[in-house]
Amino acid sequence: MNVATIAGGLVALFIAAAAFVSLRRRGAASGSVGLLLRILAVAATAWIVIALLPFTIDDSGGAASYLLGVPAVAAICPLIADLTHRAVATTTTVAALVILVWALLLGLGIGLWFVLPALLLGVAAIATMANRGATVPSNQDA
């Protein structure tokens, strides 16, 4: 285990702890499970990017910026959509697909590490869509 892995783990733990504190503060509010999963996906992505950065720079040089940058940006986009309350489910779904395709493109190298954030975002997309469809109808006709 190298210093980058430990630093990435500490960053991920900090983000995860902040996510759980935010969830506890919000209680059982609608959308809190999706938000928690999106934040955990960002934490996992941050850990992976920080841990793989030295190896990727040694192996690929300047290409490390987009090899690790694409999944990082894709993981952050659903959080931005959640802050603006616009197209959260769509953005989360697209981000999960982008990270999964990127993981498959990079193949057996560093790509397999990004399957975990893609799965977390996929489950977050499902939770967000299920939450959106679970609204209680009003009794305006009665």
The separation of the N and C termini measures: 65 Å
H/E element order: HHHHH
How large a portion of the residues is in β-strands, by DSSP E?
A: under 5%
Poorly predicted ranges: none
* Number of extended strands: 0
Q: Compute the average pLDDT.
A: 83
Write the layout of secondary structure elements.
Blueprint: H1 3-26, H2 32-60, H3 64-84, H4 88-106, H5 115-133
Structure description:
- This protein is an all-alpha fold and 142 residues long.
- The protein has five helices and no strands.
- The longest helix has 29 residues, at 32-60.
Give a short overview.
The chain is mostly helical and 142 residues long.
List its salient traits.
single chain, 142 residues, mainly alpha, 5 helices
